[in-house]
Amino acid sequence: MRKIPCLAFAAIISALFFVAPVSFASQGESQGKAVFEKKCGSCHGLDKARSKKKNEKEWLATVERMKKKGASLNDEETSAVVEYLTKNYGKK
Fold first, then answer.
1. Cβ density class 4-33: b for 16+ within 10 Å, e for less
2. Which of 44, 62, 55 is nearest to 89 (CA)?
3. Mean pLDDT, to the nearest integer, of 57-73?
4. Contact assessment for residue 84 and residue 33, using Cβ atoms and an 8 Å cutoff
5. Which CATH number applies to 28-89: 3.40.50.720, 1.20.120.450, 3.50.7.10, 1.10.760.10?
6. pTM, two decimal places
7. How far apart are alpha carbons 7 and 48 in whole angstroms?
């Protein structure tokens, strides 16, 4: 009788290891997208940025340049935006 609860518990824990990373990745991407649309879109249209293809270093330089021009992004938001842009508008 004791084996069934242990197996169920093991199955649940195992499932968390496979499902959780996908969930966290999509949360990070949605945060990056939301920050990008809200903060970057408050000063200019987003089509220009979306038409570019840059690697992570180039996107970081662009975001840092925008911060010097007044974009209000903390370190976490900067990382999220750069990650989002790199993943969705990066060089292939």
1. eeeeeeeeeeeeeeeeeeeeeeeeeeebbb
2. 55
3. 96
4. yes
5. 1.10.760.10
6. 0.67
7. 53
